[in-house]
Design brief:
It contains 5 helices and 14 strands. It is α+β, with helices and mostly antiparallel strands. The chain has a single domain, classed as Aminopeptidase (3-Layer(aba) Sandwich). The protein has an 8-stranded mixed β-sheet with strand order 8-9-10-11-12-7-13-14, with helices on both faces. The two termini are about 20 Å apart.
């Protein structure tokens, strides 16, 4: 499936939306999210939703339906046309001692400790809101709902977990869900390296796209995404029986 109408039977879902809350991307804006809770999502249905701008955390799929604002656009990297920059090549060299494990999403104390360290760091550095995540919350967000298509990529140095990348394998690409890392290893540029490794995996698996989530013009948190070219952008969130019209970005 690649930008086609989904014709299989849709799995059962519970659909709802949340009350408005403060936007983390743009000042003086509020957010409203449209949700689907799907216990038995298939890879093909997951692929169709991601291709239409949805995101997945656990068994919950969502996209924004904000009143008076359409700034969130979905973007994806063209894997077959991607070419490394000089700085990206340096990131690969700096990680030559990094061991990588690809497996089904899991939950250990090392996961929780690293997640909480990273978010404490981002709270101090970028004023992210943060409170420590619990075992239950982590399982609901990053382990549940993975089914046969979810994976985690573990980055390890000297037997220490220093990065966790959550992804989904789609029919036509990889969905980049969430990445967190050890702030004591800034020199490794693990955020950059993790995306480069996703591209390497996609090429090995003969997949065409890395789905990067949303782009919001003027949002500093998303600025890094434009360093991975070429890309395509999706301006809306079409229904499952409509073709997603991606264009060059």
């Amino acid at each position: 499936m690649n930008d086609k109408i989904f014709t299989d039977k849709e799995p059962s879902s519970t659909d709802f939306c949340m009350l408005d809350y403060e936007c983390a991307y743009l000042p003086n804006k509020s957010v409203r999210m449209n949700y689907k809770y799907i216990e038995e999502a298939t890879q093909s249905y997951n692929s169709a939703l991601i291709n239409r701008g949805w995101r997945r955390f656990g068994s919950y799929y969502f996209h924004p339906i904000c009143n008076g604002c359409t700034e969130c656009k979905s973007i994806r990297i063209n894997v077959n046309e991607f070419k490394l920059t000089k700085s990206q090549k340096k990131s690969i060299k700096r990680n030559k001692e990094t061991r990588i494990v690809v497996q089904k999403p899991s939950l250990t104390q090392a996961h929780l400790d690293l997640y909480n360290r990273y978010h404490t760091f981002k709270n101090k550095k970028d004023n992210w809101s943060h409170q420590n995540i619990s075992h239950r919350e982590y399982r609901e967000n990053f382990v549940a709902g993975a089914h046969e298509f979810g994976r985690e990529i573990l980055y390890i140095q000297n037997d220490k977990l220093i990065g966790v990348d959550l992804i989904d394998i789609l029919d036509d690409g990889i969905s980049s869900i969430y990445f967190y890392y050890d702030p004591d290893f800034p020199r490794l540029s693990l955020g950059v390296y993790s995306l480069l490794y996703q591209i390497e995996l996609a090429r090995a698996w003969k997949l065409d796209w890395i789905y990067l989530g949303y782009w919001v013009d003027g949002c500093k948190a998303f600025a890094y995404k434009t360093n991975f070219q070429p890309q395509e952008i999706l301006n809306d969130f079409p229904y499952i029986d409509k073709i997603a019209l991606w264009r060059e970005f």
